[in-house]
């Protein structure tokens, strides 16, 4: 029986409800400017509460191993706000780390998915990895291969950060080559590469069976975020509404609504959802926020 692995235990897919399919409550990285890391418990609770007040019921937190996931605090945030949270294992791009793990990556990922993260009993429900810019470098290939091995061992979904939205076809090729089913793969940040052929590129990826995650609006990618609705509409019009996911991808303190300048996690529901409803209709928006996440993140755990 397929279930979603949250920080408070496994739940039925339909219990996810309205889902932010890609976001962060806690993250620290060597790439973040001083003071912009997300590591404040009270701020996380405030942001998640605003999201819940807007109708949000669950968040998939894509912060991977070694970047300040705060697995010890995630259950408390979930209990205090009523928002279901899914934690991630995996590894980001090399530049986010002062020091990379030396142990076998696949074993690390499997342990965090099946036993717990660090000393906690919190199990991850997602493998989050990252691609290179327009291709697969040595670090990316190392992490992708480990993620594929861990996915085959557990059945867990894999979510991919695509650097500036590029390289999704190469990532999908490699993961499928290792036996990962495409419906276990979430291709992230695709709105960050809206060239003149983007609709065709997105349709080809969806046709292969993967989920396509669009994140934002965000400060870092505002130059392309404004085209996201058109990208989604093109995919819906060509029959791929059941492959689409949306997330806020809040990665800096400044981007929070509760304690920063926004737009923050609630924006998905307070601003973007009404726009999408007018353009795509309530049924499609229900698929994107409720039905599709339930399929993408539910697993028959091995």
From TrEMBL:
Protein's UniProt keywords contain Metal-binding: yes
Cofactor detail note: Binds 2 divalent metal cations per subunit.
Sites bearing N6-carboxylysine, chain numbering: 128
UniProt: Zn(2+) 2 binding residues: 128, 161, 189
Keywords: Hydrolase, Metal-binding
Homology family: Belongs to the metallo-dependent hydrolases superfamily. Phosphotriesterase family.
Record's protein name: Phosphotriesterase-related protein
Organism of provenance: Kribbella italica
